[in-house]
Amino acid sequence: MSKYEKVKVAELFAGVGGFRLGLEGWEGKSSLSNYNHKIESDYEIVWSNQWEPSTKSQDASIIYEKRFGKEFHSNEDIGKVSTHDIPNHDMLVGGFPCQDYSVARTLSQSGGLQGKKGVLWWEIHRILKEKSEKGNPVKYLFLENVDRLLKSPVKQRGRDFAIILASLSDLGYAVEWRVINAAEYGLPQRRRRTFILGFHKSTGLYNEIEESNDQTSWILDEGVMAKAFPVSDNVIKKSIFEIRGGLADISEDFSEQINTPSPFENSGCMINRKITSLKTIPKFEGSKTTLGDIILDDYGIPESFYLDQNSFEKWVKLKGAKSEERTNKTTGFTYKYSEGGMIFPDPLNQPSRTIITGEGGASPSRFKHVVLTKDGRHRRLMPIELERLNMFPDNHTDGASDVKRAFFMGNALVVGVIEKIGLQLLSHIKSFEHAGTTVR
Questions:
Q1: pTM, 2 dp
Q2: Residues 9, 91: contact at Cβ < 8 Å?
Q3: Which of 63-77, 143-157, 343-357, 423-437 has the lowest mean pLDDT?
Q4: How far is CA 244 from CA 127, 166, 177, 270, in A?
Q5: Which of 39, 215, 245, 364 sits at 20 to 30 Å (Cα–Cα) from 3?
Q6: Could you give the CA distance from residue 11 to residue 61 in angstroms, rounded to a whole number?
Q7: Share above pLDDT 90 across residues of the chain, in percent, rounded to a whole number
């Protein structure tokens, strides 16, 4: 890849375009500057896909097309999209849904797989495999998932992530990952997610990891994640191990291989199925954006966003601590239920709590955000405020209902995290170009 060429990107599970905003910016501007300053980026989205199953109205795709145009955008079930119809690209990105990634042996072929339950992960795998077989391997991966991916499923902690790593290794990728809480690095929302980078064996990044005697230095100092989101040299916990067997073997007996609750810590690196995983501590000394920094002035807020006084006591009760007996309606089993209280209203001098998909609507809820206004009233957050907490441009989701707009943001990611990792990855790629390393 010449230094004059763009990094061509395919965006899967695109939602309303969080990855695209982080990599390309909006109208050439950076999310980290609140879209006031130019983003120095060489990424170009050449194809995108967004499909919401089990619904006729493809609302997220409609917003995506409204913001970025219909050209090169697919609103079709990715399982029905031929790899031939996806343009060749340098990098594949996406926030793939968290499912059951287990696999089972076929009856006729011991090496084959059936019962692949985490179907959307396996669509990523299909695209990578078929592009490589056609002589056009995808050089880089940039993926996002919930933090519990590293610990799932309950009965075989870490198995799902082990299957993902093993399958990528078998396709010729090295991988680094990091669980990042955006608020711990000064961004406006306490949103904890797993970010995964993959480097194909034809890249300089893969070679750099392979030639390193100790992956620990890559995780702590030299890697893309370490440069984008620094961590302390004080390692709390360290695991080194190898994932063995076919994917069906891993699916069946990963817990027996490892004999530990889960070997995957919040930071790690994998090459040739060899894992180094560290429990690291974020290192950040800059200023922090708070909920109070992003909310609108009270003037002009629609009355429907203020809490109804008739339901106020219900809001207070839902937000409060509980210790009560409950009975399962199906089995009749009675049990003790307890949960702690939540700060009510939400503090304005801290980053916000995680936005959830059910944030919209006026009905009382334990998890919806509520702020106290200057005139002493309580109100829910406006869609534009939810967008700001995810570092989207103001009114990015305008055109959908308020409930849908909240749902989009509950499913979205913090754009600034994508931008910081993307820019650092670009810097790593260019450093190998300048050193004469072939990465294409």
A1: 0.93
A2: yes
A3: 423-437
A4: 24, 8, 20, 13
A5: 215
A6: 12
A7: 76
What is the overall mean pLDDT for the chain? 91
How far apart CA 185 and CA 286 sit, in angstroms, is 8
Give the closest residue to 168 by CA, choosing from 241, 272, 61, 91.
272
Digit-coded pLDDT (tens) for 150-186:
998 888 889 999 999 999 999 999 999 999 999 999 9
pLDDT in tens, 201-245: 999 999 999 988 789 999 999 999 999 999 999 888 899 999 999
- What is the predicted pLDDT for the residue at 213? 76
Selecting among 62, 98, 301, 348, the annotated active-site residue is 98
- Per-residue pLDDT tens digits for 52-105: 987 889 999 999 999 999 999 999 999 999 999 999 999 999 998 876 666 665
Task: List domains and CATH numbers for the chain.
Answer: 7-286+414-434 (3.40.50.150), 291-398 (no CATH)
Say whether 269 is catalytic. no
What is the C-alpha separation between 344 and 31, in angstroms, rounded? Answer: 29
